[in-house]
Design goal:
2 domains, alpha+beta, Aminopeptidase, 37% helix, six-stranded mixed beta sheet, seven-stranded mixed beta sheet
């Protein structure tokens, strides 16, 4: 085995260049997203890279430790998520480096987190033998990718009939107005809408500092858009999109259900597509659509836009099996109590119409 170094820091220029030039490099691998997570309550990112003799990356990933609560319960509520999965050179040397990198990571992480999840945003089938051998088991997970390399009329024609009708109706009556948030003070409005959606679903939402920091770090660099849909001036839906290379990624979205009859989410999504076409983006990534074996209302919303259904999946390594089981039981109790307190009933409705993946994104 040729010599390689495992490091937790890189010169920013080297880091950026490797991600930018790698065909699977995405926004979740970037130093900018590292900075965002570093300043978010309950989040702690780490950079892991394997370097060759010339100190050039052979493999890289960026796990983020996410803790729902602190104190004595932190170990039971902390997981690590690599939102952009792993990168490595597309040769035997790169795959070897990835194997060494993951083993080094596992030795250090030990029992500090319940599990580590790699969220694959591209086709990593060539790497699955390496991931499996390292103890990262593949799990089914689907997504929808919308091709924006077309005209707006062509894209509209590809949509489902009812979806086209809803969008055209909303465009015609002009009750719904889409605007881009251009000031940090308006980020709170987006967060309040997200919080309402997530509370309705009974699932965890990241702290407000995530969105404030994302705006502060990414907005001026053209790497994020915060959008609001208003009905007669009142904010009723929001969508937060990440921008990198030629891809727009749906990150978070939420709606005030009292205004769902105006179809603000459909219009928001169409606005994002149209803007992407006008600005030469190649693809819209819906950010995930859940486990295909489970009912998931958000998937139905995303499927209406007729994107390509892909099964890139996730890879998960469980570090503390017993503690993870206890944590899952505790989270079910948390959801049960939360839904009763808020709505006076046990059921948690999964069918929130959002443009970002929410009811899957932050469960322990």
């Amino acid at each position: 085995m040729a010599k390689m170094d495992i490091v937790n820091a890189l010169p920013e220029s080297t880091w950026k260049s490797y991600v930018r030039n790698h065909p699977h490099g995405n926004i979740f691998h970037t130093p900018e997203m590292f900075q965002v997570f570093s300043q978010t309550k309950g989040h702690s990112p780490e950079l892991w890279a394997a370097l060759d003799r010339e100190s050039q990356p052979l493999a890289l990933f960026m796990p983020v430790r996410v803790s729902i609560v602190g104190g004595l319960l932190m170990r039971m509520t902390t997981r690590a998520v690599s939102y952009g999965s792993v990168l490595c050179n597309a040769d035997n040397r790169g795959r070897e480096a990835l194997a060494v990198l993951l083993e080094a990571y596992k030795r250090k992480i030990r029992r500090r987190v319940l599990f580590t999840e790699l969220r694959n945003v591209s086709d990593l089938r060539p790497l699955q033998p390496v991931l499996d051998k390292a103890g990262f088991a593949f799990q089914e997970h689907i997504n929808f990718l919308v091709d924006l390399n077309c005209s707006k009329s062509e894209l509209m024609d590809r949509l489902g009939r009812r979806t086209r009708k809803h969008i055209r109706s909303a465009l015609k009556n002009r009750r719904v107005v889409i605007e881009e948030v251009g000031h940090k003070n308006d980020v709170k409005t987006c967060f309040l809408l997200l919080n309402k959606s997530y509370r309705h679903a009974g699932v965890y939402l990241a702290d407000q500092s995530l969105f404030e920091t994302a705006f502060k770090v990414l907005h001026s660099k053209g790497m994020v858009r915060f959008l609001l849909a208003r009905v007669d001036g009142r904010p009723v839906a929001t969508s937060i999109e990440l921008l990198y290379k030629d891809t727009i990624t749906g990150w978070y979205g939420g709606i005030d259900r009292e205004f769902s009859r105006y179809n603000p989410n459909e219009l928001l999504t169409w606005h994002i597509f149209a803007w992407g076409i006008d600005n030469q983006y190649r693809q819209y990534d819906f950010g995930g659509a859940g486990d295909p074996a489970e009912e998931y209302g958000v998937r139905d919303f995303k499927a209406k836009f007729k994107g390509e259904r892909v099964r890139f999946g996730r890879n998960v390594c469980v570090h503390t099996p017993g503690l993870l089981l206890l944590s899952k039981l505790g989270y079910r109790v948390y959801q049960h109590i939360r839904s009763i307190n808020l709505f006076g009933r046990r059921e948690i409705e999964p069918g929130i119409s959002t443009t970002g993946e929410n009811t899957q994104g932050h469960q322990p």
